[in-house]
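Structure ticket #2291
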Amino acid sequence: MKYIITVLVLTLAGALFAWRGANQKVAAANQHIQQLKTTLEASALAISELKASGQRNERALVVLRQQVNAAGALAARRNQTITRLLNENEALRGWFQSPLPDDIIRLHTRPAFDNPGDYLRWLSESQQLSDAGKYPENQR
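Resolution: structure written out below.
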C-alpha cells in the first residue's frame, strides 16, 4: 500500500508539473496570439489608410487630367487666334516675323544645367539687362 501511495503521489506530482508546463505554454501562446492580433489590427488600419490615399490620388489624377485637357484646349484656341490674326493683319505678321532684340534672345539662350546650383550660379554671373531707358540697337 505504501508503494501504491508513493506511485500515486509521484504520478500526481508528475501530472502537476506537466499541467503547469502546459499552462505556461498556453499562457505564452495566448500572449503570442495577442501580439499577432495587435499586429493584424495595425496592418488592417494601414491597408485602409492606403486604400483611402489611393482613392484620393485617383480623384486628384482625374482632376489633373481634366485640367490638362482644358489647358490643351485653351492653347489650341490661342494658337488658332494667333494664326487668324496673323493671316488677317499684314503689320502684325511683319512684326511677328521680325527678329527679337538682343537682350530677349540672350534671355532665351542658356546652357544645359546638371543641377539647380549650376543654374543659380549661371543666373548670378550672367550679364545684366540693358537700362530700360536705353533702347537696344535691333529693337522690334
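Closing remark: Residues 2-88 form the longest helix (87 residues).
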